[in-house]
Design goal:
Blueprint (H helix, E strand, L loop, with lengths): L1 E5 L4 H12 L3 E6 L7 H9 L7 E5 L7 H5 L4 E4 L14 H21 L5 E6 L22 H20 L3 E6 L2 E2 L8 H10 L3 E5 L5 E2 L2 E2 H13 L5 E4 L5 E2 H11 L4 E5 L14 H7 L7 H19 L2
Helix pairs in contact: 1-7, 4-5, 6-10, 8-10
Amino acid sequence: MRAIVTGAAGFIGSHLCEHLLAAGDDVLGIDAMTDYYPVARKKANLARLLGRDDFAFRRGDLLALPLEREFADAEALYHLAGQPGVRASWGPEFAVYLERNVRATQRVLEAAHETRLPRMIFASSSSVYGDAETCPTAETERPRPVSPYGVSKLAAEHLCEIYRDSFAVPVTSLRLFTVYGPRQRPDMAFSRLITAALTDGTFPLHGDGGQTRDFTYVADVVNAMRKAALSPWHGVANIGGGRPVTMHQILAVVAELIGPVRVDRHPAQPGDARHTAADITTAREAFGYRPATGVREGLAAMVAAERAAWAVTHS
């Protein structure tokens, strides 16, 4: 299958490209290489892909690239590009989130409509739920985002739905719940926690540690994306790990894997939901999604990858 991945140099995007290539797909990766986190990390992600006959790369802004030309021969589009981060989305920075999460998604949908793209997967977020009234949370729950980031992802998701309803754009939005794994963005909690443990540093914990998250391993996420793309089903589906855990439990697992971590405690920050948990019934019934990686196994893989990277950079 000829596939396009936007945000191909990012954490999830680079894993998705590898997954698609391993499945025999030809992949065009698109990425603007923005500097929300060090571009060197994105270049390292891309280095795993460049030079392969079945992978091509375009660097550019989705609002400026000739998307109709790029999409013309594609059989599947995975739209992962966007501005991440809950805590950075307040204040003047919200303009960036509107540009990269809302306007860029509308541009992608227009191009998908014009080229009659056969299938499209949009990477939405559990942040659209905010402080959900019920846990596990089903897709029928009314979205109530508690951060500007969540608002921008919900707006993009609504755009996907109206293009699907109005123009039959075959798009599926996957609400991803706290994705983790090797190459996770350096601003995310697990990456900072493992770095602190390996370097005898301090981990800043926001909240009392009793907050829960439905952590989802990146290999499960990219597998779900391709399954959804191969399915005739379209709509909105949760993608979660299946077993929410507290940050206290995560700290205990990391202590077992590496050693105790010094914790610097801070109050919870605006935009942080207290609990998240995915009801994954829709994804299971629609395209056979079943998470396969538990948190301890996933964290162990992150630790091994970080130790290997550390050995290379300090050899």
